[in-house]
Amino acid sequence: MVEKREKVYEGKAKVMFATDNPDFLIQHFTDNATAFNGKKKGIIKNKGIINNKITAKIFTLLEENGIPTHFVEVLNDREMLVKKLDIVKVELVIRNYAAGSIARRLGLEAGIEFPFPIVEYFYKSDELDDPMINDWHIKYLNLATPEELKYMVDAALKVNDILKKFFDERNIKLIDFKLEFGRHDGQILLGDEFAPDGSRLWNKPDDYVLDKDRFRKDLGFVEEAYEEVCRRICGE
Ligand SMILES: Nc1ncnc2c1ncn2[C@@H]1O[C@H](COP(=O)(O)OP(=O)(O)OP(=O)(O)O)[C@@H](O)[C@H]1O
Ligand SMILES: [Mg+2]
Fold first, then answer.
1. Ranges of H-type helices in 97-145
2. Which CATH number fits the domain that encloses residue 154?
3. Ligand 1: which residue has its CA nearest to atom 5?
4. Is 184 a pocket residue for ligand 1 (Cβ < 6 Å)?
């Protein structure tokens, strides 16, 4: 049993707490929702409970398939114990279908399928609104070594293979998702969360949106969508 200590970071959706063991943190999931880099704010009732469950399920599945993650165990409804990471300030986005910013940026119709997964990097910087970056920027800013970057891309593509199949079997199209990695004991681990906050999940075959785009675009039935994802994947 670990003891919960002081708050170490309060983000837009989660709060991280120290524990009596310096190697571990408690990741607490709140119901706070933001969009457009914090310009839109709201509450999605029970989101924290649902995202805690979904993240635990997905990270357990990934561990079983050889992807090392920070997940240790679920502590309660809204909290999980995780290994403390030195977060790499590069967010990796993997896209199987066009949606969101790539559709705008490249002039693509939302929903078209890519013939292969597209990998993008974003600089984790609230002040700069998380701009898209490339290998050269990462090298210049010293955000990750070439070896670390290669590991993260390979791991993210492997995560995509595992999750595309997993969601497909539950009648969900994995449109895109964002991953964060961090360093722990000389190893890179998958960190943060996997939830409808940081992914796009569309129902098959009608493409009904089951993710945070319902909140971003005021589509209604936001909480119901998160619950539906959990109903299909959590209880196994
Ligand atoms: N195992 C971990 N160890 C240390 N920090 C972590 C770990 N897992 C996730 N984090 C960081 O904790 C924070 C989680 O809070 P939240 O997701 O609410 O932040 P956020 O508002 O999205 O802010 P940010 O822009 O920093 O991601 C993030 O900054 C994330 O990078
Ligand atoms: Mg975050």
1. 101-106, 135-141
2. 3.30.470.20
3. 85
4. no
Which tens digits make up the pLDDT trace of 15-41?
Answer: 999 999 999 999 999 999 999 988 999
Give 203 Cα–ligand 2 centroid separation in angstroms. 24
Strand partners, 120: 93
Question: For position 17, which CATH number holds?
Answer: 3.30.200.20
Centroid of ligand 1 to alpha carbon of 135 (angstroms): 22
For the Cβ of 178 lying below 6 angstroms from any atom of ligand 1, the answer is: no
Q: Cα of 218 to ligand 2 centre, how many Å?
A: 21
Total domains in the chain come to 2
* Average pLDDT in the chain: 97
Pairing of strands 172-184, 187-191: antiparallel
Which ligand sits closest to the CA of 70?
A: 1
From residue 226, give the alpha-carbon distance in Å to each of 5, 62, 131, 166: 30, 20, 27, 17
Q: For residue range 86-136, what is the model confidence (pLDDT) as tens digits?
A: 999 999 999 999 999 999 999 999 999 999 999 999 999 999 999 999 999
